[in-house]
Amino acid sequence: MIAKTLFRSAGVLALIASAQLTAAQTKQCLSEGDVHGLVAYALPSVAETVVERCAGRLPANAYLNTRGPKLVTELRGGQSAAWPAAREAIIKISGDDDKAEMFRAMPEAMVGPMMEQMIADKFANDIKLENCKDIDRVLSTMAPMPAANIVDMFTAVVMIAGRDDKKLQTCAV
User: Fold this and answer.
1) Distance between CA atoms of 138 and 50, rounded to whole angstroms?
2) Do 136 and 54 form a contact (C-beta atoms < 8 A)?
3) Over its length of 173 residues, how does the chain's per-residue pLDDT go in tens digits?
4) What pTM value is reported for the model?
5) Core-most of 26, 42, 78, 119, by most CB within 10 Å?
6) Nearest alpha-carbon partner for 55 in 66, 46, 45
7) Main-chain phi, psi angles of 170, to 5 degrees
């Protein structure tokens, strides 16, 4: 159950608002660098959404309530550096030259926050409140890991999950 939730969460991270981005018409797989960029850029917003959604469902001493905000801050430390790779991955996912040009033409200050909001909104809809205790347990187990290792772990999960995915195909490593 936890593994399924983690894989699903990782898939949601990588899809980045699939309602807005269609599957690539010319199948371009995402490289590990692309996926890493997406995960590093999206994970802070996803973590923040999880903390916000689950806070009231957990005891005051739960990991998400005591350490969750610090984890979000640590993850945000790598977000800016990940944006160029995330942006290129989003362009690849769009699979459409017109959409790709639209993303390239949009000002950086507009695209990043727009993507971040889409990620948070998409993920918030997928969080089942009855899973908050499980999410808290998994994240507390990962607590000793630095934020960079958490990003690397989710990148690996998305790479594995994307091997046979029709919407988000990852390249063979």
Assistant:
1) 12
2) yes
3) 444 444 444 444 444 434 333 443 445 789 999 999 999 999 999 999 999 999 999 999 999 999 999 999 999 999 999 999 998 888 888 777 787 788 788 887 788 888 888 877 887 788 899 999 999 999 999 988 999 999 999 999 999 988 887 777 888 87
4) 0.79
5) 42
6) 66
7) -100, 150
Residue with tokens 């959604």: 53
**Which neighbouring-strand residues pair with 80?**
none
Q: In residues, how long is the chain?
A: 173
Dist CA 83 CA 116 (whole Å): 11
User: What are the angstrom distances between the C-alpha of 18 and each of 1, 7, 49, 156?
Assistant: 24, 16, 18, 20
- 157 touches 10 (CB < 8 A): yes
How far are the Cα atoms of 32, 45, 83, 144 from residue 139, in angstroms, in the given order?
23, 15, 24, 10
| Neighbour tally for 89: CB within 10 Å | 25
Distance CA 79, CA 109 (A): 14
CA 141 and chain centroid, separation: 19
